[in-house]
């Protein structure tokens, strides 16, 4: 009997590919490195810089389709890595909610299990709006019983995260910051979602 292959597509903005990380791993590379599948697995990070949830909603299906395999030989999974560009683009929280809801509903209809990673802290002046956005995304995911990783709340006042942003002189973290994001993902249902034993 042929072993089912796992294919994971991560769709998101530049944060999903680790911009600012000297090791070029980002949180996705670190999470995959800590995931022991025990069978063939492929992960594809499909990132577009500056992308809002509206733009992500418009492209994710076409981009994942050619990477996912047939259901009888592949276990296809979707990671939605939401960034902070909805705030920059002045998208309403209602619109952002709807965008995520549409993505998750289409994924469910297509029988593709989804996992959502929320936006991390950025500029201090955007804090309140990112917090509101993260709470809205969390609500949308929980209503659909989809795992959601809140990266905003634990990192908003985290010394290492803030030091990383200050060192980089931007809204992008460095190695420590992406390591923190990876830890949050790994400890918020990642292994359970994949049907794997928890990471030690």
UniProtKB/TrEMBL annotation:
It comes from the Bacteria. InterPro entries: SGNH_hydro, SGNH_hydro_sf. It holds the Pfam family Lipase_GDSL_2. Residues 10-179 form the SGNH hydrolase-type esterase domain. Transmembrane segments: none annotated. This is GDSL-type esterase/lipase family protein. The lineage of its organism: Bacteria, Bacillati, Actinomycetota, Actinomycetes, Micrococcales.
